[in-house]
Amino acid sequence: MGDLLQEIEAKIAGAKATTAKQNVGIIREIADGVARIDGLTDVMLNEMIDLGHGVTGLALNLDETEVGVIILGDYTQLHEEDEVRATGKLLQVPVGKGLLGRVVNTLGEPVDGKGPIKSDVDYPVEKIAPGIIRRSPVRQPVQTGIMAIDAMIPIGRGQRELIIGDRSTGKTTICIDTIISQARLNKQAEAAGDKEYRPLYCIYVSIGQKQSNIAQIIAVLEKADAMPYTIVLDSSASDSAANQYLAPFAGAAMGEWFMDHGMDALIIYDDLSKHAVAYRQISLVLKRPSGREAYPGDVFYLHSRLLERAARVGEKYGNGSLTALPIIETKAGDVSAYIPTNVISITDGQIYLETDLFYQGIRPAISVGLSVSRVGSAAQLKAMKQVAGQLKGDLAQFRELAAFAQFGSELDPKTQAQIDRGKRITELFKQSQYSPISAEVQIALIGAIQLGYVDDVPVDRVKDFQNKLTEFLTTLKPELLRKIAQEKALGEALTAELKAAADQFKQTWK
Amino acid sequence: MKTSKQIKREAKRLFRFCLVNGLLDEARTRQVVQGIIDAKRRGGLALLSHFQRLVKLDSARHRAQVESAIPLPEDLRLSVQTGLARTHGPGINASFVQNPELIGGMRIKVGSDVYDGSVRARLAELEKKF
Questions:
Q1: What's the gap in Å between the CA of A186 and the closest CA on chain B?
Q2: B116 and A15: CB-CB below 8 Å?
Q3: Lowest CB count within 10 Å: A206, A274, A332, A379, which one?
Protein backbone atom coordinates (compact mmCIF):
# COMPACT_ATOMS: atom_id res chain seq x y z
CA MET A 1 0.00 0.00 0.00
CA GLY A 2 2.89 2.32 0.85
CA ASP A 3 4.55 1.60 -2.50
CA LEU A 4 1.33 2.27 -4.36
CA LEU A 5 0.93 5.65 -2.66
CA GLN A 6 4.52 6.57 -3.52
CA GLU A 7 3.97 5.53 -7.11
CA ILE A 8 0.83 7.63 -7.40
CA GLU A 9 2.65 10.60 -5.85
CA ALA A 10 5.52 10.26 -8.32
CA LYS A 11 3.09 10.01 -11.23
CA ILE A 12 1.21 13.14 -10.11
CA ALA A 13 4.49 15.03 -9.69
CA GLY A 14 5.50 13.94 -13.16
CA ALA A 15 2.21 15.08 -14.64
CA LYS A 16 2.32 18.51 -13.02
CA ALA A 17 3.71 21.23 -15.20
CA THR A 18 6.44 23.16 -13.43
CA THR A 19 8.29 26.33 -14.23
CA ALA A 20 11.80 25.30 -15.10
CA LYS A 21 14.64 27.45 -16.32
CA GLN A 22 15.36 27.18 -20.03
CA ASN A 23 18.37 28.44 -21.90
CA VAL A 24 17.54 30.16 -25.20
CA GLY A 25 19.33 31.82 -28.07
CA ILE A 26 18.60 33.61 -31.32
CA ILE A 27 19.75 32.34 -34.71
CA ARG A 28 22.11 34.94 -36.09
CA GLU A 29 23.17 33.16 -39.28
CA ILE A 30 22.41 29.91 -41.11
CA ALA A 31 24.54 28.58 -43.92
CA ASP A 32 25.66 25.20 -45.22
CA GLY A 33 23.94 23.16 -42.54
CA VAL A 34 25.42 25.15 -39.67
CA ALA A 35 23.61 27.75 -37.57
CA ARG A 36 25.39 30.42 -35.56
CA ILE A 37 23.44 31.33 -32.47
CA ASP A 38 23.68 34.28 -30.12
CA GLY A 39 22.85 33.57 -26.49
CA LEU A 40 22.69 29.97 -25.25
CA THR A 41 25.08 30.95 -22.49
CA ASP A 42 24.70 27.73 -20.48
CA VAL A 43 24.99 25.26 -23.31
CA MET A 44 27.44 22.34 -23.05
CA LEU A 45 29.49 20.74 -25.78
CA ASN A 46 27.56 18.18 -27.92
CA GLU A 47 24.30 19.20 -26.27
CA MET A 48 21.15 18.79 -28.33
CA ILE A 49 19.55 22.09 -29.28
CA ASP A 50 15.86 22.33 -30.18
CA LEU A 51 15.80 24.59 -33.23
CA GLY A 52 12.02 24.58 -33.57
CA HIS A 53 9.87 23.11 -36.38
CA GLY A 54 10.87 19.64 -35.20
CA VAL A 55 14.52 20.17 -36.13
CA THR A 56 17.33 19.46 -33.69
CA GLY A 57 20.96 20.44 -33.77
CA LEU A 58 24.18 19.65 -31.96
CA ALA A 59 26.26 22.38 -30.34
CA LEU A 60 29.78 21.81 -31.61
CA ASN A 61 31.48 25.19 -31.39
CA LEU A 62 31.30 27.11 -28.12
CA ASP A 63 32.83 30.48 -28.92
CA GLU A 64 33.06 33.50 -26.72
CA THR A 65 30.14 35.33 -28.25
CA GLU A 66 28.23 32.68 -30.18
CA VAL A 67 27.51 28.96 -30.48
CA GLY A 68 28.02 26.97 -33.69
CA VAL A 69 25.32 24.32 -34.09
CA ILE A 70 25.18 21.64 -36.79
CA ILE A 71 21.65 21.02 -37.99
CA LEU A 72 20.31 17.46 -37.99
CA GLY A 73 17.21 17.74 -40.09
CA ASP A 74 15.51 20.02 -42.57
CA TYR A 75 17.30 23.35 -42.34
CA THR A 76 14.98 25.01 -44.88
CA GLN A 77 12.46 25.50 -42.06
CA LEU A 78 14.75 27.72 -40.04
CA HIS A 79 14.98 31.51 -40.23
CA GLU A 80 17.22 34.19 -38.88
CA GLU A 81 16.02 35.57 -35.50
CA ASP A 82 14.27 32.28 -34.63
CA GLU A 83 14.43 31.43 -30.97
CA VAL A 84 16.12 28.11 -30.12
CA ARG A 85 16.34 26.24 -26.82
CA ALA A 86 18.93 24.04 -25.17
CA THR A 87 17.47 20.66 -24.21
CA GLY A 88 20.06 19.67 -21.61
CA LYS A 89 20.38 16.25 -23.24
CA LEU A 90 23.04 14.52 -25.28
CA LEU A 91 22.21 13.01 -28.65
CA GLN A 92 20.78 9.51 -28.15
CA VAL A 93 19.58 6.76 -30.49
CA PRO A 94 17.17 3.89 -29.86
CA VAL A 95 18.95 0.57 -29.36
CA GLY A 96 18.00 -3.03 -28.76
CA LYS A 97 16.86 -6.13 -30.60
CA GLY A 98 13.87 -4.24 -32.02
CA LEU A 99 16.26 -2.74 -34.57
CA LEU A 100 17.24 -6.08 -36.09
CA GLY A 101 15.93 -6.50 -39.62
CA ARG A 102 15.30 -2.76 -39.98
CA VAL A 103 16.85 0.01 -42.05
CA VAL A 104 17.27 3.21 -40.01
CA ASN A 105 18.85 6.62 -40.44
CA THR A 106 21.43 8.30 -38.20
CA LEU A 107 18.86 9.33 -35.59
CA GLY A 108 17.41 5.82 -35.39
CA GLU A 109 14.29 6.68 -37.35
CA PRO A 110 13.05 3.91 -39.66
CA VAL A 111 13.38 4.49 -43.41
CA ASP A 112 12.18 1.11 -44.65
CA GLY A 113 8.49 1.85 -44.28
CA LYS A 114 7.89 -1.08 -41.93
CA GLY A 115 6.42 0.95 -39.08
CA PRO A 116 7.94 2.41 -35.89
CA ILE A 117 10.94 0.85 -34.13
CA LYS A 118 10.19 -1.09 -30.95
CA SER A 119 12.79 0.11 -28.51
CA ASP A 120 12.70 0.96 -24.78
CA VAL A 121 16.29 2.00 -24.34
CA ASP A 122 18.28 4.91 -25.76
CA TYR A 123 22.05 4.94 -25.80
CA PRO A 124 24.17 8.09 -26.17
CA VAL A 125 25.87 8.48 -29.52
CA GLU A 126 29.12 9.70 -27.99
CA LYS A 127 30.42 7.42 -25.27
CA ILE A 128 33.80 6.75 -23.75
CA ALA A 129 35.26 3.40 -24.79
CA PRO A 130 35.56 0.56 -22.24
CA GLY A 131 38.58 0.93 -19.99
CA ILE A 132 41.48 -1.47 -19.64
CA ILE A 133 40.11 -3.41 -16.69
CA ARG A 134 36.84 -4.17 -18.46
CA ARG A 135 38.52 -5.78 -21.46
CA SER A 136 39.60 -9.35 -22.03
CA PRO A 137 41.74 -10.92 -24.78
CA VAL A 138 40.18 -11.80 -28.13
CA ARG A 139 39.73 -15.57 -28.36
CA GLN A 140 36.60 -16.43 -30.31
CA PRO A 141 36.69 -16.45 -34.13
CA VAL A 142 34.47 -14.57 -36.54
CA GLN A 143 33.82 -17.02 -39.37
CA THR A 144 33.72 -14.80 -42.41
CA GLY A 145 33.17 -17.76 -44.72
CA ILE A 146 35.98 -16.50 -46.95
CA MET A 147 38.73 -19.11 -46.95
CA ALA A 148 41.59 -16.70 -47.57
CA ILE A 149 40.64 -14.69 -44.51
CA ASP A 150 39.68 -17.48 -42.12
CA ALA A 151 42.85 -19.41 -42.92
CA MET A 152 45.53 -16.75 -43.10
CA ILE A 153 44.19 -13.48 -41.69
CA PRO A 154 41.75 -14.71 -39.03
CA ILE A 155 39.48 -12.19 -37.37
CA GLY A 156 38.41 -12.57 -33.75
CA ARG A 157 35.38 -11.29 -31.87
CA GLY A 158 36.33 -7.95 -30.40
CA GLN A 159 39.02 -7.18 -32.95
CA ARG A 160 39.20 -4.20 -35.31
CA GLU A 161 40.30 -5.31 -38.78
CA LEU A 162 40.64 -2.71 -41.48
CA ILE A 163 39.63 -3.55 -45.05
CA ILE A 164 41.60 -1.27 -47.31
CA GLY A 165 41.88 -1.05 -51.09
CA ASP A 166 41.12 0.95 -54.20
CA ARG A 167 37.65 1.41 -55.57
CA SER A 168 35.90 -1.73 -56.90
CA THR A 169 38.30 -4.22 -55.37
CA GLY A 170 35.68 -6.09 -53.35
CA LYS A 171 35.78 -4.40 -49.93
CA THR A 172 32.03 -4.25 -49.40
CA THR A 173 31.68 -7.76 -50.82
CA ILE A 174 33.91 -9.19 -48.08
CA CYS A 175 31.70 -7.54 -45.47
CA ILE A 176 28.46 -8.73 -47.02
CA ASP A 177 29.86 -12.25 -47.26
CA THR A 178 30.69 -12.08 -43.56
CA ILE A 179 27.14 -11.01 -42.72
CA ILE A 180 25.67 -13.81 -44.82
CA SER A 181 28.04 -16.37 -43.31
CA GLN A 182 27.18 -15.31 -39.77
CA ALA A 183 23.44 -15.36 -40.50
CA ARG A 184 23.81 -18.88 -41.80
CA LEU A 185 25.68 -20.00 -38.68
CA ASN A 186 23.14 -18.27 -36.43
CA LYS A 187 20.27 -20.03 -38.17
CA GLN A 188 22.01 -23.41 -38.04
CA ALA A 189 22.63 -23.08 -34.32
CA GLU A 190 19.06 -21.97 -33.71
CA ALA A 191 17.68 -24.89 -35.71
CA ALA A 192 19.94 -27.36 -33.89
CA GLY A 193 19.04 -25.84 -30.53
CA ASP A 194 22.72 -25.30 -29.72
CA LYS A 195 22.76 -23.40 -26.42
CA GLU A 196 26.52 -22.92 -26.37
CA TYR A 197 26.75 -21.09 -29.65
CA ARG A 198 26.81 -17.32 -29.33
CA PRO A 199 25.05 -15.67 -32.27
CA LEU A 200 26.78 -12.72 -33.93
CA TYR A 201 24.53 -9.80 -34.85
CA CYS A 202 25.67 -7.51 -37.64
CA ILE A 203 25.33 -3.77 -38.09
CA TYR A 204 26.07 -2.32 -41.50
CA VAL A 205 26.67 1.44 -41.40
CA SER A 206 26.80 3.03 -44.82
CA ILE A 207 28.30 6.52 -44.91
CA GLY A 208 28.05 8.60 -48.05
CA GLN A 209 27.28 5.63 -50.30
CA LYS A 210 24.98 5.70 -53.31
CA GLN A 211 21.43 4.80 -52.39
CA SER A 212 21.29 2.37 -55.31
CA ASN A 213 24.21 0.48 -53.75
CA ILE A 214 22.47 0.31 -50.39
CA ALA A 215 19.26 -0.90 -52.01
CA GLN A 216 21.22 -3.62 -53.78
CA ILE A 217 22.94 -4.69 -50.57
CA ILE A 218 19.61 -4.89 -48.75
CA ALA A 219 18.21 -6.99 -51.59
CA VAL A 220 21.19 -9.37 -51.36
CA LEU A 221 20.82 -9.68 -47.59
CA GLU A 222 17.10 -10.34 -47.89
CA LYS A 223 17.70 -12.99 -50.51
CA ALA A 224 20.24 -14.71 -48.27
CA ASP A 225 17.78 -14.37 -45.36
CA ALA A 226 20.36 -12.46 -43.34
CA MET A 227 18.19 -9.44 -42.48
CA PRO A 228 16.75 -10.87 -39.20
CA TYR A 229 20.25 -10.67 -37.71
CA THR A 230 21.26 -7.36 -39.28
CA ILE A 231 20.69 -3.65 -38.68
CA VAL A 232 21.30 -1.38 -41.66
CA LEU A 233 22.13 2.23 -40.77
CA ASP A 234 21.78 4.29 -43.89
CA SER A 235 23.42 7.71 -44.18
CA SER A 236 23.72 8.03 -47.93
CA ALA A 237 25.40 10.65 -50.08
CA SER A 238 22.28 12.85 -50.14
CA ASP A 239 22.23 13.04 -46.35
CA SER A 240 23.65 16.16 -44.73
CA ALA A 241 27.31 16.16 -43.67
CA ALA A 242 26.17 16.32 -40.04
CA ASN A 243 24.22 13.07 -40.38
CA GLN A 244 27.09 11.38 -42.20
CA TYR A 245 29.46 12.50 -39.44
CA LEU A 246 27.26 11.04 -36.69
CA ALA A 247 26.23 7.82 -38.45
CA PRO A 248 29.21 5.63 -37.35
CA PHE A 249 28.82 6.78 -33.75
CA ALA A 250 25.12 5.95 -33.80
CA GLY A 251 25.98 2.51 -35.19
CA ALA A 252 28.58 2.03 -32.47
CA ALA A 253 25.94 2.90 -29.84
CA MET A 254 23.68 0.19 -31.26
CA GLY A 255 26.57 -2.29 -31.18
CA GLU A 256 27.44 -1.32 -27.61
CA TRP A 257 23.98 -2.35 -26.46
CA PHE A 258 24.72 -5.90 -27.63
CA MET A 259 28.16 -5.82 -26.02
CA ASP A 260 26.78 -4.53 -22.70
CA HIS A 261 24.20 -7.32 -22.60
CA GLY A 262 26.62 -10.19 -23.03
CA MET A 263 26.04 -10.67 -26.77
CA ASP A 264 28.40 -10.43 -29.72
CA ALA A 265 28.00 -7.91 -32.50
CA LEU A 266 29.88 -7.02 -35.67
CA ILE A 267 29.84 -3.51 -37.08
CA ILE A 268 30.92 -2.54 -40.57
CA TYR A 269 31.75 1.11 -41.33
CA ASP A 270 31.45 1.59 -45.08
CA ASP A 271 33.42 3.70 -45.45
CA LEU A 272 35.50 5.82 -43.12
CA SER A 273 37.12 7.83 -45.92
CA LYS A 274 33.77 9.41 -46.70
CA HIS A 275 33.24 9.89 -42.98
CA ALA A 276 36.47 11.88 -42.75
CA VAL A 277 35.36 13.98 -45.72
CA ALA A 278 32.01 14.76 -44.06
CA TYR A 279 33.82 15.74 -40.86
CA ARG A 280 36.17 17.93 -42.86
CA GLN A 281 33.19 19.70 -44.40
CA ILE A 282 31.63 20.38 -41.00
CA SER A 283 34.90 21.59 -39.50
CA LEU A 284 35.59 23.96 -42.38
CA VAL A 285 32.09 25.42 -42.24
CA LEU A 286 32.53 25.86 -38.47
CA LYS A 287 35.69 27.80 -39.34
CA ARG A 288 37.96 25.45 -37.42
CA PRO A 289 41.59 25.60 -38.56
CA SER A 290 42.49 23.03 -41.19
CA GLY A 291 45.62 20.92 -41.37
CA ARG A 292 47.07 18.41 -43.81
CA GLU A 293 44.87 17.85 -46.89
CA ALA A 294 42.44 20.37 -45.34
CA TYR A 295 41.37 17.84 -42.71
CA PRO A 296 40.90 19.32 -39.23
CA GLY A 297 43.52 18.68 -36.61
CA ASP A 298 41.47 16.11 -34.68
CA VAL A 299 40.63 13.74 -37.55
CA PHE A 300 42.75 11.05 -35.89
CA TYR A 301 40.77 11.40 -32.66
CA LEU A 302 37.58 11.15 -34.71
CA HIS A 303 38.45 7.63 -35.82
CA SER A 304 40.36 6.49 -32.76
CA ARG A 305 37.48 7.19 -30.37
CA LEU A 306 35.09 5.46 -32.76
CA LEU A 307 37.19 2.33 -33.20
CA GLU A 308 38.19 2.03 -29.54
CA ARG A 309 34.54 1.35 -28.73
CA ALA A 310 34.91 -2.07 -30.37
CA ALA A 311 36.22 -4.43 -27.72
CA ARG A 312 35.81 -7.75 -25.97
CA VAL A 313 34.69 -7.24 -22.39
CA GLY A 314 35.55 -9.60 -19.59
CA GLU A 315 33.45 -12.30 -17.92
CA LYS A 316 32.57 -10.05 -15.02
CA TYR A 317 31.06 -7.47 -17.33
CA GLY A 318 28.98 -9.83 -19.44
CA ASN A 319 31.51 -11.38 -21.81
CA GLY A 320 30.10 -9.49 -24.78
CA SER A 321 32.04 -8.16 -27.74
CA LEU A 322 31.87 -5.68 -30.56
CA THR A 323 33.98 -6.41 -33.65
CA ALA A 324 34.64 -3.59 -36.09
CA LEU A 325 35.41 -3.89 -39.80
CA PRO A 326 36.15 -0.35 -40.99
CA ILE A 327 36.60 0.16 -44.72
CA ILE A 328 38.97 2.72 -46.22
CA GLU A 329 39.21 3.51 -49.90
CA THR A 330 42.67 4.38 -51.15
CA LYS A 331 43.53 6.24 -54.32
CA ALA A 332 45.89 4.43 -56.69
CA GLY A 333 46.88 1.98 -53.99
CA ASP A 334 48.48 4.67 -51.86
CA VAL A 335 48.31 3.37 -48.28
CA SER A 336 50.66 6.08 -47.10
CA ALA A 337 48.08 8.85 -47.52
CA TYR A 338 46.83 10.72 -44.45
CA ILE A 339 43.58 8.97 -43.53
CA PRO A 340 44.68 5.41 -44.45
CA THR A 341 47.82 5.65 -42.29
CA ASN A 342 45.76 7.04 -39.42
CA VAL A 343 43.29 4.18 -39.45
CA ILE A 344 45.98 1.50 -40.07
CA SER A 345 47.71 2.61 -36.89
CA ILE A 346 44.46 2.38 -34.93
CA THR A 347 43.20 -1.05 -36.03
CA ASP A 348 44.44 -4.52 -35.08
CA GLY A 349 45.44 -5.43 -38.61
CA GLN A 350 44.37 -4.89 -42.17
CA ILE A 351 43.13 -6.83 -45.18
CA TYR A 352 44.73 -5.24 -48.19
CA LEU A 353 42.94 -5.64 -51.53
CA GLU A 354 44.89 -5.00 -54.72
CA THR A 355 43.48 -4.05 -58.13
CA ASP A 356 46.20 -6.04 -59.93
CA LEU A 357 45.18 -9.26 -58.22
CA PHE A 358 41.53 -8.46 -58.91
CA TYR A 359 42.12 -8.19 -62.63
CA GLN A 360 44.32 -11.28 -62.66
CA GLY A 361 41.23 -13.15 -61.58
CA ILE A 362 42.19 -13.68 -57.94
CA ARG A 363 38.98 -12.74 -56.18
CA PRO A 364 38.86 -11.92 -53.27
CA ALA A 365 41.87 -9.85 -54.28
CA ILE A 366 43.59 -10.19 -50.92
CA SER A 367 47.30 -9.46 -50.85
CA VAL A 368 48.53 -12.14 -48.46
CA GLY A 369 51.90 -10.52 -48.06
CA LEU A 370 50.64 -7.11 -46.96
CA SER A 371 47.58 -8.25 -45.02
CA VAL A 372 47.98 -9.02 -41.37
CA SER A 373 45.83 -9.81 -38.38
CA ARG A 374 47.49 -8.81 -35.16
CA VAL A 375 45.26 -11.14 -33.16
CA GLY A 376 46.13 -14.01 -35.46
CA SER A 377 45.73 -17.64 -34.60
CA ALA A 378 44.62 -16.88 -31.02
CA ALA A 379 41.22 -16.37 -32.61
CA GLN A 380 41.29 -19.38 -34.92
CA LEU A 381 39.71 -22.78 -34.49
CA LYS A 382 42.39 -25.23 -33.46
CA ALA A 383 41.75 -27.45 -36.46
CA MET A 384 42.12 -24.50 -38.80
CA LYS A 385 45.36 -23.51 -37.14
CA GLN A 386 46.64 -27.05 -37.58
CA VAL A 387 45.99 -27.19 -41.32
CA ALA A 388 46.49 -23.57 -42.26
CA GLY A 389 49.44 -22.71 -40.04
CA GLN A 390 52.00 -23.07 -42.79
CA LEU A 391 49.95 -21.60 -45.60
CA LYS A 392 51.16 -18.06 -45.24
CA GLY A 393 54.78 -19.16 -45.35
CA ASP A 394 54.15 -21.44 -48.34
CA LEU A 395 52.51 -18.65 -50.25
CA ALA A 396 55.28 -16.23 -49.38
CA GLN A 397 57.85 -18.63 -50.79
CA PHE A 398 55.68 -19.15 -53.84
CA ARG A 399 55.53 -15.42 -54.48
CA GLU A 400 59.32 -15.19 -54.36
CA LEU A 401 59.69 -18.07 -56.81
CA ALA A 402 56.78 -16.97 -59.01
CA ALA A 403 59.12 -15.08 -61.33
CA PHE A 404 60.95 -18.33 -62.16
CA ALA A 405 57.68 -20.05 -62.93
CA GLN A 406 57.20 -17.71 -65.86
CA PHE A 407 60.36 -18.92 -67.60
CA GLY A 408 59.34 -22.56 -67.41
CA SER A 409 63.04 -23.29 -67.21
CA GLU A 410 64.36 -26.45 -65.68
CA LEU A 411 64.04 -26.19 -61.96
CA ASP A 412 65.01 -28.60 -59.23
CA PRO A 413 62.09 -30.77 -58.02
CA LYS A 414 61.75 -29.03 -54.66
CA THR A 415 61.36 -25.57 -56.20
CA GLN A 416 58.99 -26.94 -58.82
CA ALA A 417 56.90 -28.57 -56.11
CA GLN A 418 56.70 -25.30 -54.18
CA ILE A 419 55.59 -23.43 -57.25
CA ASP A 420 53.01 -26.07 -58.11
CA ARG A 421 51.65 -26.14 -54.58
CA GLY A 422 51.50 -22.33 -54.49
CA LYS A 423 49.56 -22.16 -57.75
CA ARG A 424 47.03 -24.67 -56.48
CA ILE A 425 46.60 -22.91 -53.14
CA THR A 426 46.00 -19.61 -54.95
CA GLU A 427 43.46 -21.32 -57.16
CA LEU A 428 41.75 -22.84 -54.13
CA PHE A 429 41.38 -19.49 -52.41
CA LYS A 430 39.46 -17.96 -55.31
CA GLN A 431 35.86 -17.67 -54.20
CA SER A 432 32.74 -16.20 -55.77
CA GLN A 433 30.59 -13.49 -54.24
CA TYR A 434 27.93 -14.25 -51.65
CA SER A 435 28.93 -17.89 -51.27
CA PRO A 436 30.56 -18.32 -47.87
CA ILE A 437 32.12 -21.68 -47.03
CA SER A 438 31.56 -23.24 -43.64
CA ALA A 439 34.49 -23.74 -41.28
CA GLU A 440 34.50 -27.54 -41.38
CA VAL A 441 34.49 -27.64 -45.20
CA GLN A 442 37.34 -25.11 -45.22
CA ILE A 443 39.34 -27.25 -42.82
CA ALA A 444 38.71 -30.36 -44.92
CA LEU A 445 39.72 -28.63 -48.15
CA ILE A 446 42.88 -27.08 -46.76
CA GLY A 447 43.71 -30.37 -45.05
CA ALA A 448 43.33 -32.14 -48.39
CA ILE A 449 45.65 -29.74 -50.15
CA GLN A 450 48.28 -29.87 -47.38
CA LEU A 451 48.19 -33.67 -47.42
CA GLY A 452 49.04 -33.56 -51.13
CA TYR A 453 45.76 -34.69 -52.66
CA VAL A 454 45.65 -31.77 -55.05
CA ASP A 455 49.24 -31.99 -56.29
CA ASP A 456 48.37 -34.07 -59.33
CA VAL A 457 45.28 -32.05 -60.28
CA PRO A 458 45.84 -29.64 -63.20
CA VAL A 459 45.68 -26.01 -62.03
CA ASP A 460 42.69 -25.13 -64.21
CA ARG A 461 40.72 -28.04 -62.75
CA VAL A 462 41.40 -27.25 -59.09
CA LYS A 463 38.14 -25.31 -58.73
CA ASP A 464 36.19 -28.21 -60.17
CA PHE A 465 38.03 -30.58 -57.82
CA GLN A 466 37.13 -28.32 -54.91
CA ASN A 467 33.46 -28.15 -55.82
CA LYS A 468 33.17 -31.89 -56.36
CA LEU A 469 35.04 -32.66 -53.13
CA THR A 470 32.78 -30.27 -51.21
CA GLU A 471 29.73 -31.95 -52.70
CA PHE A 472 31.16 -35.38 -51.87
CA LEU A 473 31.86 -34.46 -48.27
CA THR A 474 28.55 -32.74 -47.64
CA THR A 475 26.42 -35.47 -49.19
CA LEU A 476 28.35 -38.66 -48.47
CA LYS A 477 30.46 -37.77 -45.43
CA PRO A 478 28.33 -35.41 -43.29
CA GLU A 479 29.42 -37.35 -40.21
CA LEU A 480 33.06 -36.43 -40.80
CA LEU A 481 32.19 -32.76 -41.22
CA ARG A 482 30.04 -32.85 -38.12
CA LYS A 483 32.90 -34.35 -36.13
CA ILE A 484 35.30 -31.66 -37.34
CA ALA A 485 32.75 -28.97 -36.41
CA GLN A 486 32.22 -30.44 -32.95
CA GLU A 487 35.72 -31.36 -31.92
CA LYS A 488 37.24 -28.26 -33.51
CA ALA A 489 40.66 -29.97 -33.53
CA LEU A 490 42.11 -32.54 -35.92
CA GLY A 491 43.27 -35.47 -33.85
CA GLU A 492 44.97 -38.49 -35.40
CA ALA A 493 41.71 -40.38 -35.81
CA LEU A 494 40.01 -37.50 -37.55
CA THR A 495 43.00 -36.91 -39.85
CA ALA A 496 42.96 -40.57 -40.78
CA GLU A 497 39.24 -40.35 -41.51
CA LEU A 498 39.82 -37.30 -43.67
CA LYS A 499 42.56 -39.10 -45.58
CA ALA A 500 40.30 -42.08 -46.14
CA ALA A 501 37.50 -39.85 -47.40
CA ALA A 502 39.89 -38.03 -49.74
CA ASP A 503 41.26 -41.33 -51.07
CA GLN A 504 37.73 -42.51 -51.73
CA PHE A 505 36.92 -39.32 -53.56
CA LYS A 506 40.09 -39.40 -55.65
CA GLN A 507 39.19 -42.82 -56.93
CA THR A 508 35.90 -41.59 -58.33
CA TRP A 509 37.17 -38.24 -59.63
CA LYS A 510 38.49 -37.99 -63.16
CA MET B 1 48.14 45.81 -41.04
CA LYS B 2 45.97 44.57 -38.24
CA THR B 3 44.39 41.14 -38.62
CA SER B 4 40.81 40.58 -37.58
CA LYS B 5 42.06 38.59 -34.59
CA GLN B 6 44.08 41.53 -33.34
CA ILE B 7 41.13 43.85 -33.87
CA LYS B 8 38.90 41.48 -31.89
CA ARG B 9 41.42 41.38 -29.07
CA GLU B 10 41.67 45.15 -29.02
CA ALA B 11 37.87 45.50 -28.96
CA LYS B 12 37.75 43.08 -26.02
CA ARG B 13 40.35 45.10 -24.15
CA LEU B 14 38.44 48.33 -24.69
CA PHE B 15 35.22 46.64 -23.57
CA ARG B 16 36.86 45.45 -20.36
CA PHE B 17 38.05 49.00 -19.74
CA CYS B 18 34.42 50.17 -19.90
CA LEU B 19 33.35 47.75 -17.15
CA VAL B 20 33.12 49.25 -13.68
CA ASN B 21 32.33 46.79 -10.89
CA GLY B 22 31.24 44.28 -13.49
CA LEU B 23 28.69 46.62 -15.07
CA LEU B 24 29.01 48.65 -18.22
CA ASP B 25 29.68 52.33 -17.51
CA GLU B 26 27.89 54.55 -20.05
CA ALA B 27 30.23 57.50 -19.76
CA ARG B 28 33.32 55.43 -20.40
CA THR B 29 31.65 53.66 -23.32
CA ARG B 30 30.83 56.99 -24.99
CA GLN B 31 34.39 58.13 -24.35
CA VAL B 32 35.82 55.01 -26.01
CA VAL B 33 33.60 55.29 -29.07
CA GLN B 34 34.44 58.97 -29.57
CA GLY B 35 38.12 58.20 -29.07
CA ILE B 36 38.15 55.56 -31.80
CA ILE B 37 36.33 57.84 -34.25
CA ASP B 38 38.67 60.74 -33.54
CA ALA B 39 41.81 58.59 -33.87
CA LYS B 40 40.88 57.81 -37.50
CA ARG B 41 43.21 54.79 -37.60
CA ARG B 42 43.03 52.02 -40.16
CA GLY B 43 40.71 49.23 -39.00
CA GLY B 44 38.83 51.70 -36.84
CA LEU B 45 35.46 50.81 -38.32
CA ALA B 46 36.01 47.07 -37.82
CA LEU B 47 37.08 47.81 -34.25
CA LEU B 48 33.93 49.84 -33.68
CA SER B 49 31.68 47.10 -35.05
CA HIS B 50 33.29 44.46 -32.78
CA PHE B 51 33.02 46.78 -29.82
CA GLN B 52 29.39 47.46 -30.65
CA ARG B 53 28.71 43.69 -30.77
CA LEU B 54 30.28 43.16 -27.35
CA VAL B 55 28.24 46.04 -25.88
CA LYS B 56 25.08 44.64 -27.50
CA LEU B 57 25.69 41.18 -26.04
CA ASP B 58 26.42 42.61 -22.61
CA SER B 59 23.27 44.71 -22.60
CA ALA B 60 21.28 41.64 -23.75
CA ARG B 61 22.69 39.75 -20.75
CA HIS B 62 21.52 42.49 -18.42
CA ARG B 63 18.17 43.06 -20.04
CA ALA B 64 15.11 41.42 -18.61
CA GLN B 65 11.86 41.24 -20.51
CA VAL B 66 8.80 40.44 -18.43
CA GLU B 67 5.79 39.41 -20.48
CA SER B 68 2.38 39.10 -18.88
CA ALA B 69 -1.16 38.62 -20.16
CA ILE B 70 -2.57 41.56 -18.21
CA PRO B 71 -0.83 44.80 -17.14
CA LEU B 72 0.93 44.19 -13.83
CA PRO B 73 0.22 46.34 -10.76
CA GLU B 74 3.06 48.46 -9.41
CA ASP B 75 3.81 46.40 -6.30
CA LEU B 76 4.10 43.21 -8.37
CA ARG B 77 6.46 44.95 -10.75
CA LEU B 78 8.63 46.05 -7.85
CA SER B 79 8.77 42.56 -6.36
CA VAL B 80 9.73 41.11 -9.76
CA GLN B 81 12.53 43.64 -10.08
CA THR B 82 13.91 42.94 -6.59
CA GLY B 83 13.68 39.22 -7.29
CA LEU B 84 15.66 39.62 -10.49
CA ALA B 85 18.27 41.76 -8.74
CA ARG B 86 18.59 39.07 -6.10
CA THR B 87 19.12 36.20 -8.53
CA HIS B 88 21.01 37.94 -11.31
CA GLY B 89 22.77 40.72 -9.47
CA PRO B 90 22.26 44.47 -9.79
CA GLY B 91 22.12 46.29 -13.10
CA ILE B 92 19.21 44.40 -14.63
CA ASN B 93 16.96 46.64 -16.72
CA ALA B 94 13.51 45.18 -16.62
CA SER B 95 10.97 46.04 -19.28
CA PHE B 96 7.34 45.06 -18.90
CA VAL B 97 5.39 43.98 -21.98
CA GLN B 98 1.83 42.86 -22.35
CA ASN B 99 1.21 39.67 -24.35
CA PRO B 100 -2.38 38.38 -24.21
CA GLU B 101 -1.34 35.15 -25.99
CA LEU B 102 0.14 33.91 -22.71
CA ILE B 103 -3.41 33.60 -21.36
CA GLY B 104 -2.16 34.03 -17.81
CA GLY B 105 0.99 34.07 -15.68
CA MET B 106 4.38 35.56 -16.53
CA ARG B 107 7.25 34.84 -18.87
CA ILE B 108 10.57 36.34 -17.79
CA LYS B 109 13.54 36.37 -20.13
CA VAL B 110 16.88 37.48 -18.60
CA GLY B 111 19.72 37.31 -21.09
CA SER B 112 19.60 33.70 -22.36
CA ASP B 113 17.59 32.32 -19.47
CA VAL B 114 13.84 32.04 -19.79
CA TYR B 115 11.51 31.38 -16.87
CA ASP B 116 8.21 30.55 -18.48
CA GLY B 117 5.37 30.31 -15.94
CA SER B 118 2.63 31.31 -18.32
CA VAL B 119 -0.52 29.26 -18.74
CA ARG B 120 0.24 28.76 -22.44
CA ALA B 121 3.60 27.15 -21.68
CA ARG B 122 2.19 24.88 -18.98
CA LEU B 123 -0.58 23.74 -21.32
CA ALA B 124 2.00 22.97 -24.01
CA GLU B 125 4.07 20.99 -21.51
CA LEU B 126 1.05 18.98 -20.36
CA GLU B 127 0.19 18.33 -23.97
CA LYS B 128 3.71 17.01 -24.60
CA LYS B 129 3.57 14.80 -21.48
CA PHE B 130 0.35 13.16 -22.56
A1: 41
A2: no
A3: A332
